[in-house]
Amino acid sequence: MDFTGKVALITGAGNGIGRAAALGFASRGAKVVAVDRDAAAAERTAASIRQQGGEARHHVSDVTRSADVAAYAKAALDAYGRVDCFFNNAGIEGKLAAIVDMDESVFDDVINVNVKGVFLGLRHVLPAMIAQKSGAVVNTSSVAGLVGTPGMSAYVASKHAVIGLTKSAAGEVARAGVRVNAVCPGPIDTRMIHSIEAQINPADPAAVEASYHRALPLGRYGTAEEIANIVLFLCSDMASNINGAQYVADGGRTSIGGAITVLPKSGG
Prior knowledge:
Elements: E1 7-11, H1 16-27, E2 31-36, H2 39-51, E3 56-60, H3 66-80, E4 85-88, H4 104-132, E5 135-140, H5 153-173, E6 178-185, H6 191-200, H7 205-215, H8 224-235, E7 246-249
Helix pairs in contact: 1-2, 1-8, 3-4, 4-5, 6-7
């Protein structure tokens, strides 16, 4: 996968899957714009790329604000003149709770970042790709976009919505030479899954991790680099006939059916 001469724009690039994708694109020749609401994290990603001889810059953005999203799209275009690959990745897990116990503000926060943020990214980046008659977008959904997970209704709803946005966008821009797909990770060894573990059992999050590992056919969490590799593939010319798809990378979780329950114990 050679991205020499191409420009990759990545949200949520400060940590986890976004950072792994940024480093992956850069190692294969792409110029990278690393977007994150955490300025220090975004700069660390960009600095790592530059230290390895690549070209990158960072941009601070709140993906729930249209003006901020328009600004990161403009920053990429002002710097490099085009956007070839857009990894629309920023997302949050929210606080775990049953629907009857969930604060409305928690639901709103998750939907705003995970759904509105993806919508705004498409809204402001797709016009540039349409104008240049080429481009590839990957939105981050989840296995939570395919199955339910008790205790994570907001997150599940948001990731189902991302798949819907992906399919709609894919149909709208295909004739313009632009492809839009989604990646659906299962549990990945990043901050997010460890936050979930700690919410389920603050006294012993390692026990939750061990339980998750036992429930997964591969017996382990995936890595950020494994998901980044799928993102790179979907943005590459090797995926030129893939559009409107959702690629699952969950260690076999959905192959055996059922959901991993994440509700904290009563009083936990």
